[in-house]
Structures are given as structure tokens and as C-alpha cells.
Records
---
Amino acid sequence: MAESVGERLGRIVGDRHVLSGEDIPEHYRVDVLGKFSGRPAWVAKPGGTGEVAAIVRLAREEHLPVTVIGGQSGTAGGAVPSDGGLGLSLERMNRIVEIDTLSMTMTVEAGCILQLAQEAAEEQGAFLPLDLGSRGSAVIGGVIGTNAGGNRVVRWGMMRDMVIGLEAVLADGTVVSSLTKMLKDNAGYHWKHLLIGSEGTLGIVTKAVLRLRPLPTTRQTALIATDSFEQMIAVLRRLEVSLSGQLSSFELMWDDFYRLHTEAQLGQRPRPMPCGHAIYALVEAMGGNEELDAELFTGALAQLMEEGLVTDAVIAQSARERDALWAVREDLQPGLAPLRPFVAYDVSMAIADMPAFVASARKALLEAWPEATVMFYGHAGDGNLHAVVSIGRMDEEVQRGFDEAVFGAVREVGGSISAEHGVGVERAPYLGWTRSESELALMRTLKRAIDPDGILNPGKLLGVV
Ligand SMILES: Cc1cc2nc3c(=O)[nH]c(=O)nc-3n(C[C@H](O)[C@H](O)[C@H](O)COP(=O)(O)OP(=O)(O)OC[C@H]3O[C@@H](n4cnc5c(N)ncnc54)[C@H](O)[C@@H]3O)c2cc1C
């Protein structure tokens, strides 16, 4: 009798690493917000690249869709397996293979949680700068699959800037590997860049060589406020120079965001400064001179206040105070819980276009729903803005109305519909709003060439190809 798919999977990874049907726990099937869910026939947990390749060959033979399930922290439904398909969890492939403090690289398996990779680097006196609110659940394969950015892009760039070498399994089971530690290599196409940000639709990342940086030993953090967005960006540009390259985070918060979250957090911590300023920024500098860095930071902010560019500033005097300032930006649950159901967007645009986007999106949303709560915040480094919209109820029509208002405002300024969570299933219908027909055609051509049977995460990113 022919072996079943489940039996063949069991032979590849071991029976205890295969789950099927009703036995598949929810966290493999449902995204972080509980908005998207799938009913995969199997979830397999391979222990190494060879096993991933064998599973992909099997999936190809059986015409089974394969979705890699990372930390499930993306909210666009990209990691939700297809009904009747195969979910791959790389959670057993979580080793830090090597930290090379001479080349300043880290070789790591794709299932390693980002925070564990950060901590392992730190133990060796090195620094993996990528940092996001989801650091405790997002995995290396997921942050590569979505080209994650986060809090420190302004200084060290996003994931694309940190991936030096990559190993991946292609749709026919070929292992393609360039686990190099070389920073510069101009010999031919850099295929890794096709896979970075491709949301598991072109290949399955199994290992990566990541660029490390010297570990900063000082950290200065402040919350600042200005009277206008333009002044805040002038402050950003001034600090990039006056902090001698130490500026590491510049997180923007519009007054509506600051007001709502600091109010909701009052039970845990006092509001660091009054509401009513036009815009706030959480500013952080990281350096290496214990004696001079604090003085440099305080002096730079004092100068900006003297000139009237910064209207208020609170500088953290201890690690506890620093955590309290970061909590304004990251401890969002108390503020967001009463807004459920809400929709959160992660869009991007040139920094200069942010005020036009905010004004246009806010106008469109409030004209349609005068009662709506609308908030904006984001990372200035990557031009990445979040909009949170809630009217206290949700259905398909409301969702479509929100999407059209926000993505329409993005389109007006030539921005992008996705800057963090990927396109997934949620934004696939809107990809053409900010990508031209010729770009979409090229994307489809690439997808068909690399995955002719369409088994890798079908329906995600490009929709039906
Ligand atoms: C609180 C919070 C804060 C966040 N902050 C940021 C932020 O500041 N910046 C930012 O960019 N994002 C942010 N995100 C979004 C999210 O964390 C990132 O998109 C993250 O990179 C997803 O990683 P993950 O492991 O959870 O991937 P998942 O959500 O599991 O998967 C995302 C996509 O990657 C694919 N994938 C996963 N593993 C692989 C692999 N091995 N090979 C190929 N494809 C793979 C999946 O199939 C899916 O399409 C945040 C999310 C939350 C919940």
C-alpha cells in the first residue's frame, strides 16, 4: 500500500515532529491578532536544511502548498498556512551556529528567536542592532522574510542591510547556499535580495550570516516635543550631526497617540510630560564613551531647546526611567484594548511626505466616520508610519473603507502600502495601488520562474499568480 503524506513526513522528520488535522494547535494556524486562520492538513517541524529540502520535494510531488510559520508576529496573514496545505515550523532549527567576533558576523538558523540572537551576540561583546517590539516572538527567518526594520533603522538599517550570507531551499528542493562572511561581493546577481522580504513565496530561508557591530556601552534616552512636524525633522537632522553618529532611534508620536497611550498607562507610570505638543519623539543615542556621551547628549538637547526648536524634553536618568520612556511607545496594550476591534496599518513614504499623508488619511477617515479614533506614530528612520483606526465595530465594508482611505492617502504621496508586516493575504488586493503594472508583471515573472508549480505560500503577496 502506498505511504500516506503523513507517513512520508514522519519518515523525514520523525513522527513526533508531524502534527495533523485537529491536533494542530491554534498558534500554528492563527495570526497574532486572531484575524486570519487556516486549516492545514499537516504541520511539520524539520530539524535541519536537508529535512526542509526533502519536505519541499514531497510537497511538490503532491502539489501541496507550503507555508513557513515563523513567530506569527506579522499581522497580514502571511504565515497562516493554506487550507489542506502544509505548515513548516522551523522552531527546532534554532541554533546559533557561530559568532565570529573578528569578522563581526553571526551564523544562525532561521528558527532562532530574534531576542535570543541579540542576547547571544551581546554575550560575546557584539551587537545585532535589529530591534522590534516583537523581538521575543519573531524569528530570524520571519524577520528576513519580511525585511523587518524597527527601532534602530535610522542608524544601522533594516534586515536587508544586515544579511551578509543566506542559505535557502527553493521550490524544487534545491538547497542554494552562500553562507559567506564577505561584506562586498560583486560577482553576479545577489539572489539573497530576492528572498529577503519575499514572505516565503520564492524560497525557504534556513540559515543566515548576519552582520554584527561593536556593542555600544552607553545609552542615552529622552522624550522630546516640538511645535511642528517640520521642526521635529529639523531636530532629527541636527542630532544626526551633533551626536557624532550616535543617534540610534528616533520614534515619532503624534499628539493623539501620546495622549491616548499615556492616559491608558497612568495606572503603571506617570505621564512623562504634558500633552498638547504637536509631536513627540523618543530619541536614543548609543555610544562608547562613559565620560563624555551623557554630556554630549544633554548638551545637544539643551542647545536645541535654547534655539526654541525643542519645546520640552525629559532625559532618562536611570535604566528604570529609560524603560518607562520606551514603554510610552511600546506598551500599547492598555491603550489599544478599549479600541478593539481596530485596524493597524504600517505604511511608508518619504519623510517629507508624512504630514501630507497624515492630513489626507485623517480627513478621509473622519469625513466618513466622524466618531473614529485615528492615531499616528512610527519610525522616522525608515519613513515607516503606523495608523490605528477604530470606530468600535468592524465588518467587511468598514475594513474596506478604512483600507481605501489609508491606502488612498499613501498612493497620493507615492508611498507603500506595507512597511513592516508584509503584504500577506490582507494587502494583496492593494499591491497595485503603490506598485506599477510593469513592476507587478516582473514580480509575477519571477514567481513563475522560481516556483513554477506555485507551491510556496500561494495566495500571499501577489495573490493568485
Ligand atoms: C508588537 C509588534 C511590533 C512590531 N514591530 C515591528 C517593527 O518595528 N518593524 C517591523 O518591520 N515589523 C514589526 N512587527 C511585525 C513583525 O514582527 C515582523 O514582520 C517580523 O519580521 C515577523 O517575524 P515572524 O517570525 O513573526 O514572522 P511571521 O509573522 O511568522 O511570518 C512573516 C512572513 O515571513 C515568512 N517566513 C517566516 N519564516 C520564513 C523563512 N524561514 N523563510 C521564508 N519565509 C519565512 C512567513 O511565511 C510569512 O509570510 C511588529 C509586530 C508586532 C506584533
Note: DSSP finds 16 helices and 18 strands in the chain.
---
Amino acid sequence: MKKLLLFLLVQSLFLVVSAQQLELFNNSQSAYTIVLPSKPTTVELKAAMVMQDYLQRITGKELTIRQDDQGEQEKEILVGRVQRKAMLELPLAKLQEDGLWVKTAGKKLLIAGGTKKGVLYAAYTFLEKYLGCRKYSSDLTIVPKKATIVLNEINDRQLPAFTYREVFYNDAYDQEYSDWHKLHSFEGRGVDKSQWGYWVHTFASLLDIKEYGSTHPEYFSFYDGQRHAEAIPNWDGTGSQPEGQLCLSNPDVLDIVCRNLKKAMDKKPDALYWSVSQNDNVNHCKCKPCAALDSTYAAFKPEDKMYSTHGGEKYPALGMGSILHFVNQVADRFPDKIISTLAYQYSRVPPKNIAPRKNVNIMLCSIESSRNDPMEIGDTSFSSDLKGWGKLTGNIIIWDYTISFNHLFAPFPNLRVLQPNIQFLQSNNVSALFEQGNIQRGGEFAQLRTYLIARLMWNPQLSIEKEMNDFLIAYYGPAAPYVKEYISLLHDNNQSGRGVKMSSFGSPVEYAESFLSKDLINKYNAIFDRAEAAVKNDEAFFSRVRSAHLPVYYAMLEIARKEKTGPRGAFIKDLNNNWIPNPIIENALNDLYYHCMRTNVSRMAEWDTTPTEYFEKYNDFLEAGQK
Ligand SMILES: [Zn+2]
């Protein structure tokens, strides 16, 4: 009797689950069709085609795409706002722009999304989360083969943690990668139009110094006893830039800026964000009315907040009052647009008794922050400014940095701060995020970082350990455990919590006694020897492992160039007591160069130095050193 009851119980449980299950494919056959609205949007059409394409690649069977006015069938995959009861009942407005909803309802599968790209994101999320597809890099997509697909009940609604998500890494602008990982581009890289009309440092283009400098010097900054209406050469030697800023209390300046802004908006009607922001210098206007605005809205005494630029110059961070007073007026004239302005250097501290309008966006840059500690503890100055801004507005974009700009190939152990930083930003009312990485081809762990950052931007609470393991296994194959061992050892020694700053402008030479010590470099090379041996018969894995190894070579080369002689130097003495290039260093240089060539690396530093230039300069150094 007990056995019979148990049998009935199991039977009925099985039947209940089975009734909720949805058999999409059985042995590469399917009764399903993909259904679109009769007038689909481009995004809906794209989502339907992504579903059709990937389901065909998984099962070998191509499903038909139909429109919702062609008669309802029981088994349908509904994509977008189709006229079907199950879809019409969903509160899709809750998905806002990019939110997504994957849902089973009876025998229907619903792929739904918000007003922008949500439905496309829902398609990729379904393929990834429920069918095991992956997009690890622009050229590594995993599509598992399955003849039968049975789905359990799904009700998966997701909203992004940030409404704007950009990863400034080369791979992120591959169009499929960008859609798969739900990313944006301020420059409109890829095929999407940019949401940004102007991005940053726009005072110079909104009121031209060439047009007004000589006739209206009063439009420009007053300091050191006079107006500064001149241009100076750019820091990189190309072109020129204004020496100062605009005089923001002058009503004519407001009118001219708004007139020019309107002209620019008419040319790009789709762009939502328009930057009205300071030039890249700290010479803001100190005329009486501007200074009065700054002091009226200052939340501190000038001497209490002395900041320095990343160039080292010191100044009181006192300039936000006049900027926000000005930008709020601009925003009032363009209520349908978002006017973005910089809280940067002299304007980074949040003001008091004035708040940004709802359609004003505040852009904060964490360029001075240390990269080995989470920013909340590693850069208390920045984090306290952000906390203050987070209390004034929920319309904040952070421009954050994740690499060493001068040394794109240097080991840069900041992977452990990515998640705490993004979580910290989310919890302080940040709505948009621009993570600046390496836009060049190549560089240290470029694909891994792009992948992790993209996923964290959508969901800062995910398990980064799980994501990283998943990536490493797929990307490095049998060498994955070794690459992981290297990452762990490197990060265990990154000086986190010891008051040592790892900056985005640092050189590997600075870490020659910490995470790039002689002993550790030997250990790293030994790990990579094992990693390379594990994949020596697989060309793709081997090439990726070699790319991961190059930063160790790069660190050896930079340290050798600095030390010249000694155990880590570029030169040793031969049997006749003559200085010759150290063969270990020569080999590291040759290997680095050859692999950079093979993998199309474009730059060794953010702004200059191709691999060939690096190779030639280093060889010149080795040749000159012998003499
Ligand atoms: Zn002024």
C-alpha cells in the first residue's frame, strides 16, 4: 500500500511538472514557430532572427518566423509586443528601456523587453542562461549542440543596475558582443546611434575662443587680475585649447551656449545626453559674480578641500556653485534632453543649497583613485564626494578606469576591486557607468576584463568567482587552472590594504619589489611554462595563454631597462668581461614582439608606441648600452 501511494505521489508530481514543462525541440523536430508583431520594430525583428539563428545552430532545425495576425497556434515563441493574451497581460512598462522578461506561459515561451533593446537582451539572456550559449569574446562564441530542448517553468524578469553601461575595451564594440552583453557606446561605435550628442569638455566648442576671444574677453575666465581669452597648445602637442573656462555668470554666455547647443541638437535629434562641461584645466572664472556664486553654494571653506590634478597642481575644489547655477539654466531651456556636466577637479565637491535639475546629469571621474584597493577605502576623497552627490541626485555617470594607460601590457592586479567598486557606485545612486579600459587591440587580460566588467554592470551582485572560472575554462582550456593560479598569486601580492597606491598611470618598475619581485616573476614564469605545456597541441588555447604570459615578459623588460645591470638588469658580462645584452631579456623582447605581431596588437601604451616601435627602441637601448 505504501509503495502504491509513493508510486501515485511520484506519478502525480511527475505529471504536474510535466504539464508545466515546455518541449521546444524533440530529436531536432519542433512544433513551434517564432511569432512577431505584424509591424515589428527593428529590435524585435533582430531578436526574432537571433532566436531563429541560434536555435538552428543548437538543434539543426530552423523555426519559421510568423506575424501575430496570421492566426494563433498553441505552440509559439512570442518575441516582442505581439497580440497574444499571455504577452498582453505582462506589465511591460515595468521593464523601462532595457529591462527584459523571459517567461513560459502554458505552451508559450515569451521573449519580452522594454522600449529600447530589452527584447533583444531577453533573446540573448534566454540563449545564455537556459540553453548554455556563451559569448566570451568577439571571436569566441560557444553554441552547445542539443537535439532535444525541454524547458521547466521560467519567470525571469531583469532590470539593469545602471541605465547606461559602457565598457571602453576593443571587444566590447563588436556588435554582437555589445548586444549580447547589453552595452552602449558614447561615440556610436558598432552600428547603434549614440545616445550622447556631446560627451565631455565642451565649453570650448559651445563658445569658440577664436570667434569671441578678441571681441569679448569678458566671456572668458578672470583670474590673476585679468581675463584669459587665449588658446594654448594641447598637452599632447596637437592643436590648441583655451587656457581657461567661460565666465558663467555672464548672461550673454548663457545665450550663446544655448544657441550653439540648439544647433548641434538639431543635427542629432536622437541624442539624449548633451555635455555642457568645463574645459580640461582648473583655471575657472573668479570674477566677482562668479566667485559670489561659488561661495554662496560652497559646502566648505576653500582651504578645507585642496585637491590636486593628476598632474599634481594644487587648488581649492570650489568651482561647482557657478557651474551648476549655469547648467541648471541650460537644462531649463531643454527639458526633453539631459544636460551632463563634470564634477571634476575644481568642481568635484558637491555644493550646498543648490541641487541639479532632474534633467542634469553629473559626471564624476575617479581618475586619481588607487586601483589595488576598493575605491571606498582606497580613495576616501573621491568616495565622500560621490556619497554627497548621491544624496543630491540619482542622475550620475561615473567615468571609471581599469588599466595602466602608459603600460597596456603591464600586470595590473585590479580584478578583485571591480565588483566592490561597481557595487559601491550602485549603492550611491549612480545611474550610468563608463568603464575605461584599453581601446587598443591586445593588452593584459583584455577579454577577461571586458567580460567581467560587462556582466557586473548588468548585475553587480553576481558571483564573480563563478563567472571568472567559467571564462577561464572556456578561454584557456586545460591551461585554465594555471592561469587562475597566476591570477591568484599576482593579486595576493598586490599590496591591497597596505596604503600603497597602484595608479592608472603607474609603471611596472614601481612594483619591482612587491607583486613584480624577482622571486614572484620566477614563479609566474614557471606557472606559465606549465600552462603552455598543457595546451601545446591546441593552437587557439596556446595563443591565448601566450597572450596572458606577455605581461610577465613586459614587466621583466621594463625592470631590466631601469636596473640595467645586476640580477634583473638588461646587461651581463661575457667571459671577456665585456657588457652584452642579457639573453633572457633579449628572448623576452623577441617573444613579446613576435606574439604581438601575430595577434595584431595595436599599441603598447594608450596614446603611442606600436609593438614595432617598442621593439626598435628597446633594441636601440640594448645596442647603446653595450658601448
Ligand atoms: Zn565670471
Note: The chain has three domains: 16-158, 180-462, 481-626.
